[in-house]
Amino acid sequence: MTFLTIEGLHKRYQNAPGTALNDFSLSLIKGQRLAIIGESGSGKSTLLRIIAGLEVQDEGTVTLSGNPVLNPSQKLVAGYDDIQLIHQQFKLYPFSTAEENIKRPLIQYDKTYVKERTSFLLDLFGLTDKKDRLPKQLSGGEQQKVAIARALSIEPELLLLDEPFSNLDAIQKRVLLEELHDIFEEIDLTVIWVTHDLSDALAVADELCVMRGGKIVQRGKAAEIFSKPKNRYVASMFSRLNQLGQEKNKYIRPQHVLADTSGTGMVGVVKKCQFRLGYNHLTVLLEEENIYWRIQDSRRVFNLGDRLILTYNEKDVLVLEED
């Protein structure tokens, strides 16, 4: 059964080029975790604000559990307790402890419930031993966990995340993403996450939606989109693309190029070798085509100046529409 329905959203800002949202429609079932990925300016943040009832759309509707989500022009106090939006700014109360920040939205609730709910969230987010610390005494990842726990204190039906971890370092972010994946799964929470970082999206979401120019370009499971991207823009979200000769619409991914020092195939010379986690990233100049290909050397056996024979399997060739 459909839980969230978005139909025909249009949004254009005055004195801004282009359209933020252009006939945008989307639906989610309860408990689904969707990541929306796209370049800056693709309309992701505007979409979340409209879903949360914090932005006025030009056209279109949003419904949650069959009830319309009213925008600020239709509702005296903008926003809903059932829909929580979290940004990269934590907005914690600096002179309140982690526990006090989490339970602040529950100030008018029964004291027994407040105690039980706060204790549950502290334990769920692994913050019990840090409950008496002020925000400045917590790491960036811990502060973000407090912010998310606070948003969940009133048991919302929908959580919206607007690139919330862009200011965390790589180690903090990796650990936090793993924890959030398990937390969201455990409490069966419906989540929409917008980001420009594919690795972040893959860590938390069970489905991806690629967005560009205020529209959905493609939606589906990550593996499906990777193997059958709709166009070059979608394919490039996952990796660089090597064009096959003069065929403008045919490409091969770096990880699908096979390299050796003997045999038959395309001849190329390694012009650049860069260390990456899990492989060396090689830039190879193809002698006959006089173009550069990027390939992955997972064995780390090739060096600058090596002459390579490159081949690929036809099944890995992508035939793509232009952007």
Which CATH-level-2 architecture of the largest domain?
A: 3-Layer(aba) Sandwich
Which structural class do the helices and strands define?
A: alpha+beta
Poorly predicted tracts of residues = none
CATH topology heading of the largest domain: Rossmann fold
- The proportion of residues in beta strands is 25-35%
Strand order of the largest sheet: 6-7-8-3-9-10
Summarize the structure.
This protein has eight helices and 18 strands. The chain has 323 residues and is an alpha+beta fold. The model has no long low-confidence stretch (mean pLDDT 93).
Walkthrough of the structure:
This protein is an alpha+beta fold and 323 residues long. It folds into two domains: 2-227, Rossmann fold, CATH 3.40.50; 248-319, Beta Barrel (OB fold (Dihydrolipoamide Acetyltransferase, E2P)). The chain contains eight helices and 18 strands. The chain has helices spanning 44-51, 98-103, 111-124, 140-152, 170-187, 198-204, 222-227, 232-238; strands at 2-11, 21-29, 33-37, 59-64, 67-68, 83-86, 158-162, 190-195, 207-212, 215-220, 242-244, 247-252, 258-260, 266-276, 279-286, 291-297, 307-311, 318-319. Strands 6-7-8-3-9-10 form a six-stranded mixed beta sheet, with helices on both faces. A five-stranded antiparallel beta sheet has the order 13-17-14-15-16, with no helix packed on it. A hairpin with a 2-residue loop joins strand 4 (59-64) and strand 5 (67-68). Helix 4 runs parallel beside helix 5 (170-187). The longest helix is centred in the middle third of the chain and has 18 residues, at 170-187. The protein is globular. The model has no long low-confidence stretch (mean pLDDT 93).
